[in-house]
Amino acid sequence: MNNKPSKKDMEVIEDNSFSYDGYQVVRGEFFAHIYEPSFTFSKNKISVNTACVKKLPDTDYVQILVNRKEKKLAIRPCSESDKDSFRWSTASTKKRSPKQITCKVFYAKILSLMGWSPDYRYKLLGKLIKSGDELLFIFDLNTPEIFRCSSSTDGKTQSSRMPVYPEEWKNQFGLPVEEHHKSLQINIFDGYAVFGIQDTQKESEDTALEQTNITAANSVH
User: 73: exposed, middle or buried (C-beta count within 10 Å: 0-12, 13-18, 19+)?
Assistant: First the structure.
């Protein structure tokens, strides 16, 4: 059976007058994306989806990087011995799956940075990119899918299946073509800072030390 397209199927109408002016690239958040990488914040916990783990099948430990200025988050593969590394998947060799990780300090810092509410679940879509010899995931904190959380009669937290989008998305499909193109041109590590989500004790100690210094300074005056 010959599946090769015929000349009629391949017919292309040439139109040099076409322009992208007025077109918007429809946001990926408006489509189903089960097989695309995602990162979720919910009730003091974070997690990636199975797609992330499958795209990096040899990666057991990662670091999280945050760009406060650009409001972007990156996941970078690393070794267990690297500072601020953590296991992002189960240790099973047969069927690896993502781990849901409790991280109250990191969760609170992101909510504060983005002005998010703890009453919602925030899901970010991401892309696997290559920078030099490194592979890493990039997620945009500015464009989350937002789901309202509620408590059921048995006390368990449930999340709505219907996403809530920012008000400014109401009358648009997405970014204009030129602006969309510029948004993809990112300098991967410029401005990123490694954040150890398990290093809560150190942060508490730093906070206590800062408060002690403030108290001491006030007593001098």
Answer: buried
- DSSP letter for 167, please: G
Q: Model confidence over 22-63: pLDDT tens digits?
A: 898 887 767 766 788 999 999 999 999 999 999 999 999 999
One DSSP character per residue, 9-28 reads TT-----TT---TT-EEEPG
Specify the pTM. Answer: 0.66
Q: What size, in residues, is the chain?
A: 221
* Domain limits, the chain: 24-197
How does pLDDT run across 191-201, given as a tens digit for each residue?
666 766 544 44
Residue 203 CB neighbours (<10 A): 14
Those residues whose C-beta lies under 8 Å from the C-beta of residue 90, and which sit 6 or more positions away, are: 96, 97, 98, 99
Q: What are phi and psi of 164, to 5 degrees?
A: -115, 130
Going by C-alpha positions, the residue among 50, 30, 26, 28 that lies closest to residue 38 is 50
How many other C-beta atoms are found inside a 10 Å radius of the C-beta of residue 62? 23
Count CB-CB contacts under 10 A for residue 121: 21
Cα–Cα distance for residue pair 213/209, rounded to 1 Å: 6
